[in-house]
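Bumping with the actual sequence this time:
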Amino acid sequence: MPISYASVLVAGGALHLSRPSLIDTNIAMRRLPFCFNFPRRQCPARVRRFALVELLVVLLSVLLIVTIMLPAIHRSREQAKVDRWEGYMRSQRVREQMVLQWMMVDSIGTEIVRNYAQGNQIEDYRREAHFGTLHGGVAWAAGRWYSKKALEFDGLSGRVISDRLDMVAADSGEYTLITWIKAASAGAQTLVASTCTDTVGHGTVNLSLDAHNRLVTRTEDGLQVSPLSVGTDVWTMVAMVQTRDGITLWRMADDDILSRRVGDGQMHTNAPAEASSAFLVGSSRRKIPENPFKGRLDELVVYRRALSADDLQEAYRIGRP
């Protein structure tokens, strides 16, 4: 008698092209590792159990592969962001009037923050003069991305000092400062300050947080408090832009971009004298820390000109974590 069915075995299963007889079905059931294509009453319990175990093994294998691959995919995406950011920073350093570019890519263990700015169109500019030195409770830590570094300040004695910074061109009076911070707590804290101690009349250029974590600065008219509040444990880009018309503060985080003009006066300082000026990060005083910052600071850029709103938003778009 001719065979009444044809079957093709694929990956341990059966693709049935015609209806089998009962005898042929029993033969097929004995040969196959599982029998999903047969009625439940015709599939032995041991075969059903075997099929379930196989299915669980496959699912666990897929889950294991996904678990292993996801971190690698995430790191790859972050590295692509870092590469794009580094390309952007290289293009920026050749722009005119950049005084300072601390990229925070230095190795953990070093006590120096390197300056990568080229100082184009700034007379007698020396890049090494704008290196920063770590003092007190400040150390290298993880930055906005896993492969990038940041400086972590302990909120007690941590500060970074640069002995010289030609911040404001005497003829233009323009200035832009950009940095990324991740505040660990609320309270009055100094982010960046420039102090001059050689003569009476030199004051302090200051970008700080007040007791409510609002951005504040000083102008010739005194302390200027903005309504721009900085959250804790959130990477935030903050900027201060000085023009002849006044100072504008910026706060950018979680795609929320806000700015506020805080005064019509010039910043509260004259152009710093080379011999006695100090550019401070994390404290408003050089020797005895005052209003120290607690948190992480990643990247610090200073221009001796005013960047536009489009420039600042581009910096945020490329630099956001």
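The tokens above came from a reply further down the thread. Confidence is low (pLDDT under 50) at residues 1-23, 27-34, 197-203, 269-276.
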